[in-house]
Amino acid sequence: MLTELVGLPGGAFRMGTTSFYPEEAPVRTVTVSAFAVERHPVTNAQYARFVEDSGYVTVAERPLDPALYPGVAADDLMPGALIFRPTAGPVDLRDWRQWWEWAPGAWWREPFGPGSAVDDRLDHPVVQISYVDAAAYAQWAGRRLPTEAEWEYAAHGGSSTTYAWGDEVTPNGDLMANTWQGSFPYRNDGARGWVGTSPVGEFPPNAYGLLDMIGNVWEWTSTPYSMQRREAAASSKGCCPPSGGQERSDRGIQLREPDPSVNQTLKGGSHLCAPEYCHRYRPTARSSQSQDSATTHIGFRCVAGV
To answer: What are the TM regions of this chain, as residue ranges (predicted)?
Structure first.
Protein backbone atom coordinates (compact mmCIF):
# COMPACT_ATOMS: atom_id res chain seq x y z
CA MET A 1 0.00 0.00 0.00
CA LEU A 2 1.28 3.46 -0.89
CA THR A 3 1.71 6.02 1.85
CA GLU A 4 -1.24 8.32 2.47
CA LEU A 5 -0.83 11.74 0.85
CA VAL A 6 -1.34 14.94 2.83
CA GLY A 7 -2.48 17.88 0.72
CA LEU A 8 -0.72 21.20 1.28
CA PRO A 9 -2.07 24.51 -0.04
CA GLY A 10 1.21 25.96 -1.24
CA GLY A 11 2.17 29.59 -0.87
CA ALA A 12 5.12 31.82 -0.04
CA PHE A 13 7.53 31.16 2.81
CA ARG A 14 10.94 32.28 4.02
CA MET A 15 13.45 29.66 2.92
CA GLY A 16 16.91 29.26 4.40
CA THR A 17 18.72 30.71 7.39
CA THR A 18 21.95 32.54 8.26
CA SER A 19 22.10 31.17 11.81
CA PHE A 20 23.84 27.83 11.22
CA TYR A 21 25.82 26.54 8.22
CA PRO A 22 26.80 28.80 5.27
CA GLU A 23 25.17 26.57 2.65
CA GLU A 24 21.76 27.26 4.21
CA ALA A 25 21.91 30.95 3.25
CA PRO A 26 20.60 33.24 1.93
CA VAL A 27 17.18 33.76 3.45
CA ARG A 28 14.69 34.54 0.72
CA THR A 29 11.00 34.36 -0.08
CA VAL A 30 10.08 31.33 -2.18
CA THR A 31 6.65 30.34 -3.48
CA VAL A 32 5.56 26.74 -4.00
CA SER A 33 2.41 25.54 -5.73
CA ALA A 34 -0.13 23.35 -3.96
CA PHE A 35 1.02 19.74 -3.75
CA ALA A 36 0.56 16.60 -1.67
CA VAL A 37 3.29 14.89 0.33
CA GLU A 38 3.50 11.38 1.73
CA ARG A 39 2.83 11.30 5.45
CA HIS A 40 5.96 9.30 6.23
CA PRO A 41 9.11 8.02 4.50
CA VAL A 42 8.85 4.94 2.31
CA THR A 43 9.26 1.84 4.47
CA ASN A 44 11.03 -1.46 3.93
CA ALA A 45 7.67 -3.16 3.43
CA GLN A 46 6.62 -0.65 0.79
CA TYR A 47 9.90 -0.87 -1.09
CA ALA A 48 9.67 -4.66 -1.01
CA ARG A 49 6.28 -4.49 -2.71
CA PHE A 50 7.73 -2.22 -5.40
CA VAL A 51 10.63 -4.60 -6.06
CA GLU A 52 8.35 -7.65 -6.15
CA ASP A 53 6.02 -5.93 -8.61
CA SER A 54 8.66 -4.41 -10.88
CA GLY A 55 11.71 -6.65 -10.58
CA TYR A 56 13.79 -3.54 -9.96
CA VAL A 57 17.46 -3.97 -9.01
CA THR A 58 18.95 -1.21 -6.87
CA VAL A 59 22.28 0.47 -7.54
CA ALA A 60 23.87 -1.21 -4.50
CA GLU A 61 23.15 -4.60 -6.10
CA ARG A 62 24.81 -3.79 -9.41
CA PRO A 63 28.53 -3.97 -10.22
CA LEU A 64 29.99 -0.51 -10.68
CA ASP A 65 30.74 0.60 -14.23
CA PRO A 66 34.55 0.97 -14.59
CA ALA A 67 34.00 3.78 -17.10
CA LEU A 68 32.33 5.86 -14.41
CA TYR A 69 35.05 5.16 -11.83
CA PRO A 70 38.39 5.40 -13.67
CA GLY A 71 41.37 4.19 -11.68
CA VAL A 72 39.30 2.28 -9.11
CA ALA A 73 40.55 -1.25 -8.42
CA ALA A 74 38.36 -4.10 -9.72
CA ASP A 75 37.78 -5.42 -6.18
CA ASP A 76 36.29 -2.06 -5.24
CA LEU A 77 33.76 -2.20 -8.10
CA MET A 78 31.81 -5.05 -6.53
CA PRO A 79 28.18 -4.40 -5.51
CA GLY A 80 27.82 -2.89 -2.06
CA ALA A 81 27.13 0.26 -0.10
CA LEU A 82 28.34 2.44 2.78
CA ILE A 83 27.58 1.47 6.36
CA PHE A 84 28.03 3.36 9.61
CA ARG A 85 30.30 1.83 12.23
CA PRO A 86 30.68 3.56 15.62
CA THR A 87 34.25 4.20 16.66
CA ALA A 88 35.84 2.83 19.83
CA GLY A 89 36.16 6.29 21.33
CA PRO A 90 36.54 10.00 20.53
CA VAL A 91 38.05 10.74 17.10
CA ASP A 92 38.80 13.72 14.89
CA LEU A 93 35.37 14.71 13.57
CA ARG A 94 36.92 16.18 10.43
CA ASP A 95 37.55 12.68 9.03
CA TRP A 96 34.29 10.90 8.22
CA ARG A 97 36.20 7.85 6.98
CA GLN A 98 36.68 6.78 10.58
CA TRP A 99 33.01 5.85 10.95
CA TRP A 100 31.93 5.06 7.38
CA GLU A 101 33.10 1.94 5.56
CA TRP A 102 32.36 0.28 2.24
CA ALA A 103 30.55 -3.02 2.74
CA PRO A 104 30.46 -5.42 -0.23
CA GLY A 105 27.07 -7.10 -0.37
CA ALA A 106 25.22 -4.39 1.55
CA TRP A 107 21.87 -3.45 -0.01
CA TRP A 108 18.42 -2.49 1.19
CA ARG A 109 17.42 -6.02 2.33
CA GLU A 110 20.78 -6.49 4.10
CA PRO A 111 21.64 -2.90 4.95
CA PHE A 112 24.70 -3.70 7.07
CA GLY A 113 26.02 -6.40 4.75
CA PRO A 114 25.46 -10.14 4.35
CA GLY A 115 23.76 -11.61 7.40
CA SER A 116 21.89 -8.45 8.37
CA ALA A 117 18.17 -8.18 7.57
CA VAL A 118 15.09 -5.96 7.71
CA ASP A 119 12.53 -8.69 8.47
CA ASP A 120 11.96 -7.23 11.94
CA ARG A 121 12.05 -3.65 10.65
CA LEU A 122 9.43 -3.64 7.91
CA ASP A 123 7.90 -0.45 9.34
CA HIS A 124 11.25 1.38 9.39
CA PRO A 125 12.30 3.69 6.54
CA VAL A 126 14.06 1.83 3.75
CA VAL A 127 17.76 2.70 3.50
CA GLN A 128 20.63 1.87 1.14
CA ILE A 129 18.61 3.61 -1.56
CA SER A 130 20.41 5.78 -4.13
CA TYR A 131 18.81 8.75 -5.83
CA VAL A 132 17.84 6.78 -8.93
CA ASP A 133 16.40 4.00 -6.75
CA ALA A 134 14.15 6.53 -5.07
CA ALA A 135 13.16 8.06 -8.42
CA ALA A 136 12.31 4.60 -9.79
CA TYR A 137 9.97 3.91 -6.87
CA ALA A 138 8.34 7.31 -7.36
CA GLN A 139 7.74 6.55 -11.04
CA TRP A 140 6.21 3.17 -10.19
CA ALA A 141 3.96 4.82 -7.60
CA GLY A 142 2.81 7.51 -10.06
CA ARG A 143 4.42 10.15 -7.90
CA ARG A 144 7.70 12.08 -7.88
CA LEU A 145 10.44 13.21 -5.54
CA PRO A 146 9.98 16.62 -3.88
CA THR A 147 12.00 19.66 -4.75
CA GLU A 148 14.11 21.12 -1.98
CA ALA A 149 11.71 24.05 -1.66
CA GLU A 150 8.68 21.77 -1.39
CA TRP A 151 10.41 19.62 1.21
CA GLU A 152 11.44 22.60 3.34
CA TYR A 153 7.98 24.14 3.10
CA ALA A 154 6.38 20.89 4.22
CA ALA A 155 8.85 20.35 7.07
CA HIS A 156 8.20 23.78 8.57
CA GLY A 157 4.53 22.89 9.00
CA GLY A 158 3.49 26.50 8.51
CA SER A 159 5.93 27.88 11.08
CA SER A 160 9.21 29.78 10.81
CA THR A 161 10.83 28.38 13.95
CA THR A 162 14.33 26.91 14.21
CA TYR A 163 13.04 23.38 14.54
CA ALA A 164 9.92 21.89 13.00
CA TRP A 165 8.28 21.95 16.45
CA GLY A 166 9.52 25.30 17.84
CA ASP A 167 12.69 27.06 18.91
CA GLU A 168 13.67 24.64 21.69
CA VAL A 169 15.35 21.39 20.68
CA THR A 170 13.62 19.43 23.46
CA PRO A 171 10.53 21.39 24.56
CA ASN A 172 9.54 20.41 28.10
CA GLY A 173 12.31 17.82 27.95
CA ASP A 174 10.60 15.86 25.18
CA LEU A 175 12.70 14.29 22.42
CA MET A 176 10.96 15.26 19.19
CA ALA A 177 12.96 13.38 16.55
CA ASN A 178 15.26 10.40 16.11
CA THR A 179 18.69 12.01 16.32
CA TRP A 180 21.96 10.94 17.91
CA GLN A 181 21.83 10.80 21.70
CA GLY A 182 25.23 10.68 23.34
CA SER A 183 28.71 11.49 22.01
CA PHE A 184 29.25 11.13 18.27
CA PRO A 185 30.49 8.83 16.77
CA TYR A 186 31.29 6.39 19.54
CA ARG A 187 28.43 6.43 22.08
CA ASN A 188 24.78 6.42 21.12
CA ASP A 189 22.35 6.09 24.03
CA GLY A 190 19.41 5.70 21.65
CA ALA A 191 16.46 7.92 20.80
CA ARG A 192 13.55 6.55 22.83
CA GLY A 193 15.54 3.33 22.87
CA TRP A 194 16.20 3.24 19.13
CA VAL A 195 19.81 3.08 17.94
CA GLY A 196 19.73 3.56 14.19
CA THR A 197 16.41 3.89 12.37
CA SER A 198 13.10 3.79 14.21
CA PRO A 199 9.62 2.80 13.01
CA VAL A 200 7.90 5.60 11.09
CA GLY A 201 5.68 7.60 13.40
CA GLU A 202 7.60 6.84 16.58
CA PHE A 203 8.05 10.59 17.13
CA PRO A 204 5.44 13.38 17.04
CA PRO A 205 4.14 14.71 13.71
CA ASN A 206 4.64 18.31 12.67
CA ALA A 207 1.76 20.77 12.39
CA TYR A 208 0.81 19.38 8.97
CA GLY A 209 0.57 15.86 10.39
CA LEU A 210 3.76 14.74 8.63
CA LEU A 211 5.92 12.12 10.32
CA ASP A 212 9.72 11.92 10.49
CA MET A 213 10.33 15.02 8.42
CA ILE A 214 13.19 15.59 10.85
CA GLY A 215 15.60 12.86 11.93
CA ASN A 216 15.42 9.11 11.35
CA VAL A 217 16.74 9.24 7.75
CA TRP A 218 17.91 11.93 5.38
CA GLU A 219 15.59 12.23 2.36
CA TRP A 220 16.41 12.67 -1.31
CA THR A 221 15.06 15.66 -3.21
CA SER A 222 14.98 16.25 -6.96
CA THR A 223 17.03 19.44 -6.62
CA PRO A 224 20.69 19.21 -7.66
CA TYR A 225 22.95 20.49 -4.90
CA SER A 226 24.65 23.85 -5.17
CA MET A 227 26.06 26.21 -2.57
CA GLN A 228 24.19 28.93 -4.50
CA ARG A 229 21.00 26.99 -4.14
CA ARG A 230 17.94 29.12 -3.79
CA GLU A 231 17.00 29.88 -7.39
CA ALA A 232 17.35 26.22 -8.35
CA ALA A 233 15.43 25.09 -5.29
CA ALA A 234 12.45 27.20 -6.21
CA SER A 235 12.31 26.15 -9.84
CA SER A 236 13.38 22.49 -9.96
CA LYS A 237 10.43 20.18 -10.64
CA GLY A 238 11.85 17.00 -12.14
CA CYS A 239 12.07 13.68 -10.31
CA CYS A 240 14.63 11.97 -12.52
CA PRO A 241 18.40 12.47 -12.92
CA PRO A 242 19.70 14.93 -15.51
CA SER A 243 20.11 13.61 -19.02
CA GLY A 244 23.15 11.49 -19.68
CA GLY A 245 24.18 8.03 -18.63
CA GLN A 246 22.89 4.66 -19.70
CA GLU A 247 19.15 4.09 -19.85
CA ARG A 248 17.66 0.84 -18.61
CA SER A 249 14.25 -0.63 -18.03
CA ASP A 250 12.79 -2.80 -15.26
CA ARG A 251 9.36 -4.03 -16.36
CA GLY A 252 8.41 -0.68 -17.83
CA ILE A 253 10.29 1.59 -15.41
CA GLN A 254 12.46 3.89 -17.50
CA LEU A 255 15.37 5.37 -15.59
CA ARG A 256 19.00 6.27 -15.94
CA GLU A 257 22.10 5.00 -14.28
CA PRO A 258 23.28 7.38 -11.54
CA ASP A 259 25.83 10.01 -12.47
CA PRO A 260 28.46 10.01 -9.69
CA SER A 261 29.55 13.49 -10.74
CA VAL A 262 26.12 14.95 -9.90
CA ASN A 263 25.10 15.61 -6.30
CA GLN A 264 21.52 15.91 -5.11
CA THR A 265 20.21 17.81 -2.10
CA LEU A 266 19.28 15.83 0.99
CA LYS A 267 16.96 17.21 3.67
CA GLY A 268 15.88 16.47 7.22
CA GLY A 269 18.89 15.05 9.02
CA SER A 270 19.05 11.52 10.39
CA HIS A 271 19.62 9.33 13.43
CA LEU A 272 23.32 10.13 13.02
CA CYS A 273 22.92 13.89 13.47
CA ALA A 274 24.52 15.20 16.66
CA PRO A 275 24.95 18.85 17.69
CA GLU A 276 28.74 18.59 17.89
CA TYR A 277 29.01 17.21 14.36
CA CYS A 278 25.82 17.58 12.30
CA HIS A 279 23.33 20.07 13.73
CA ARG A 280 21.12 19.49 10.71
CA TYR A 281 17.89 18.21 12.26
CA ARG A 282 16.13 21.39 11.14
CA PRO A 283 13.88 22.24 8.14
CA THR A 284 16.42 24.68 6.69
CA ALA A 285 19.35 22.27 6.92
CA ARG A 286 20.65 20.53 3.83
CA SER A 287 23.39 18.17 2.70
CA SER A 288 24.98 17.05 -0.54
CA GLN A 289 25.13 13.45 -1.78
CA SER A 290 26.14 11.95 -5.12
CA GLN A 291 23.41 10.23 -7.10
CA ASP A 292 25.04 6.82 -6.76
CA SER A 293 25.36 6.91 -2.96
CA ALA A 294 23.51 4.36 -0.86
CA THR A 295 24.01 4.46 2.91
CA THR A 296 22.44 3.30 6.16
CA HIS A 297 20.96 6.73 6.90
CA ILE A 298 19.39 7.91 3.63
CA GLY A 299 15.78 7.23 2.59
CA PHE A 300 13.05 9.19 0.82
CA ARG A 301 9.38 10.07 0.50
CA CYS A 302 7.33 11.05 -2.55
CA VAL A 303 5.00 13.88 -3.44
CA ALA A 304 2.24 14.38 -6.00
CA GLY A 305 0.85 17.40 -7.81
CA VAL A 306 2.31 20.07 -10.04
So the answer is: none
